[in-house]
Model the fold of this input.
Amino acid sequence: MTYILEQTSQGDIGKETATVNWRIRGTVPATATDPFDQVAQFVMTPNRIPRTFSHPRGTLYLQDIQIHENHAARSYSITAPYGITKRDPGAYQLVVDQTGGTVNVTAGTRIAGYGPFADEVDNGGLIGVDGDEIRGVDIPVAESKITVNFRHPEGKLNAAYVKAVGQLVGYPNSTTFLTYAPGEVLYLGSNFAETDMEATAQYSFAISYNVQNLILGGITVAFKAGWDVLNISYKDEVDNGHNVKRIKYIEVIRPAGREWINYMAAFGWG
Done:
């Protein structure tokens, strides 16, 4: 038979939610084969139920389509809840955690020194020099973490994809990803189930920003990508009659297992 979808009420409108109710007009014949499947196929036709709702606070997005069987499968009602999360395939929500962390810094730029000249010790910007040990100091740094909830189309979250992205943990990005420059994003892992259906997967990343013209102990590091590390070599010198340590050489090292990966090609989005 020909089904007609009819809106019955606008339902509840919350602070950032709304619910719209519908029904299938007419009576589904009791002799129909698998009437629920027929009704579901009709209702789930793309854009049969509007994907958006105009709310006083802005646009809301369809979250789900709930089909209710009434009167021994003779009639059906539909509930369509709307919310702020966009669930269309290809849509994503980005959640940022910018809680700061700490890092131990062993060198910087010497600004000044105070005390008698005879006692002046200039370690060239090294911090916490104690004999042969350089203790450094813990300082706050930006340590952003981002979580991406990405809506995948049917068939994307298959076994091959699950295996492929699982091998990317710990590797930084080689191309711009979610507006972050190459080398700044590190994949931490994901949370999703293998499925043939349209579904949302959750991905976690850590951010370490690239730096330019970093001055340590009088030596300028022209560029260090976010997840590369500095390897500092020291030398012993005598300054003003005192034994001091100075920075001799600085290397930028990319640790094994942190080779850069093209995230766009690997994830298919970003």
